[in-house]
Amino acid sequence: MKRIAAVCLMAALHGCAATGVPRTTQPLAWTLGSVEAGAIATQTYRALVQSVEARLPAAAGMPSAILGSDGTPLPCTAETAQRPAAVFDVDETLIWNVGHAYYEARGDAPFDEKSWAAWEREGPAQTVAIPGAKAALDALRAMGVTPVFNTNRSAENAKHTEAALAHTGLGPAVHGETLFLKGDVDGKSGKDGRRAEIVKRFCVLALVGDQNGDFTDSIDNGPAGKRPMAERREIAVARYGAHWGADWFVLPNPLYGGWNNPPMNRDEVVAPDQRWTYKGNH
Predict the structure, then answer these.
(1) In what helix (H) or strand (E) does residue 239 lie, and over which residues does it extend?
(2) Could you report the per-residue pLDDT of 197-211, keeping only the tens digit for each?
(3) What is the pTM of this model?
């Protein structure tokens, strides 16, 4: 049985190492071709809007969706309470990078930093808003909530990312104000430093993304480096379970991610006592 490779192909965007494993058509077909993918995104964005609306008006002292270094939510201040916001990752959270995904799948190409950088510059007109995203951002803005974008796209291509968000109807986005890019603030690909800066400016009522790092760097990373996958799953549930669906909203991404870095095969993800084989005798 051929393993479906849903791999970390745009890994440089998310701070993990590229695997060199080519993108296959199957995860791309589900992401861009299935009804279910759009339905999940739409219901996630609807739940996000309802959650943010329920937390308004923002007030000094209320917990934000952003965690401090001790893992507890940072409170909104009297000043930031006047500027409620929701923080969004961009790639495969708000937009599908249709053109670049097609390029990789057509040639079974692994992730390549040069082609991705070219896509950032040349691809705004081929990006597509994920179902439910525009309606959600429109609703938030109507409530006086500012969408802030925190993405690991390159700061060198800031104007092109602004253009992609404008093209999909998700903008406006202004680099340094409502758009934060890889290397901004602390020079790192991890997003905690940028979130710490954002929470100084806004009362953040929700975080939205498709990777653990869109919420906190501490799920994937520990004092000794990258955590084992089982430990990540345990931490996400035991330590941060109260946030999911409350002020953290995650969208599915079978195309790439730290969950498959390095690539896992079926024997690594299905425990021996969970396996079944058809005996063919009835």
Answers:
(1) none
(2) 999 999 999 999 999
(3) 0.90
